[in-house]
């Protein structure tokens, strides 16, 4: 790597903090978070001067493990490009299991992740990084020139077609949210190769490590994540069904292949009193809902995620909110969403549901039944996800939830 300027900042006016010290602190945090695990990934994160990719951002911020530097927003205010947070980058790179000498395609560029990949494949390997946006690839090129990573090729194109000219790849790493898997990604991957992709399934995104097995992909682990949406031929955004929008206090259901709701009836339902149902199932304070929610979307046909703007939450219009959305069971003129309440144990919360509308209580009870089923039969297990070509007959798919997209049939099954 070329020499880069040893920039220093002063931490609250005292001792100067060098970029290397910031990197060391970031790596320590990534290890604590369990995001960086293998020594080679740790070494890569310790060496790449990521702050050079976003000179407009304060250097210390670029080394915050959870900070994503947004570099572009579209006309509707949706973030469409960023340098991902170090924790997310490390998590995906660990999922990809990159070895020296490999050929790796990154779809969705930014430069920083490509530099980590270049460190991991070494001089004998090669990295192709591509982005649909010329501004992004220019930024990536400038960054990679500054860091001196020469085994990276930067390409401007729509990732839908992959990059056939440099295929096949041992690994494909997608760093933008996908609702489908285009055939090119499977065909450009070596047999047994790994595809890591933030895949949206009925509104819920998980970055999944898939292994190619002929024409199908088989999951080998996944992690919770949020990513900017795909542009180009594969663009397929969630659609919002707004059920409340007074004074900027918007509440909406994010539809992703779900039936069209009766929004007028649901607006009226939200104005009615809450009906609660409780499950007796508890979660530890630091326990994630990620597996429970995947179970709920496997078991229940009409479960979009509900998104509430902070102002709606502050005024208490909804009892539960999350940037990733809250699973909400819709049934005609009524709905119920997952929530929690405190228990006598300060470290545990009881799962339940809040219902609204004429059938609000019954819908909340139905949601709670599936929370109890998860606890009884699936808790502690992970969903198994497969991707099959569109047109694969039902009897050749694993049992479970099937999500039909343009190119593929995605299945979620449970042990
Ligand atoms: C989260 S950013 C990538 C971050 C990057 N990997 C890094 O170094 O942290 C996602 C990128 O995907 C790009 N993108 C969106 N749709 C795309 C498509 N169809 N093909 C290629 N890139 C796409 C966006 O322009 C955006 O720059």
Automatic annotation (TrEMBL):
<protein>
    <recommendedName>
        <fullName>Protein-L-isoaspartate O-methyltransferase</fullName>
        <ecNumber>2.1.1.77</ecNumber>
    </recommendedName>
</protein>
<keyword id="KW-0808">Transferase</keyword>
<dbReference type="InterPro" id="IPR000682">
    <property type="entry name" value="PCMT"/>
</dbReference>
<comment type="similarity">
    <text>Belongs to the methyltransferase superfamily. L-isoaspartyl/D-aspartyl protein methyltransferase family.</text>
</comment>
<dbReference type="GO" id="GO:0032259">
    <property type="term" value="P:methylation"/>
</dbReference>
<dbReference type="GO" id="GO:0004719">
    <property type="term" value="F:protein-L-isoaspartate (D-aspartate) O-methyltransferase activity"/>
</dbReference>
<dbReference type="InterPro" id="IPR027573">
    <property type="entry name" value="Methyltran_FxLD"/>
</dbReference>
<keyword id="KW-0489">Methyltransferase</keyword>
<keyword id="KW-0963">Cytoplasm</keyword>
<dbReference type="GO" id="GO:0005737">
    <property type="term" value="C:cytoplasm"/>
</dbReference>
<dbReference type="InterPro" id="IPR029063">
    <property type="entry name" value="SAM-dependent_MTases_sf"/>
</dbReference>
<dbReference type="Pfam" id="PF01135">
    <property type="entry name" value="PCMT"/>
</dbReference>
<keyword id="KW-0949">S-adenosyl-L-methionine</keyword>
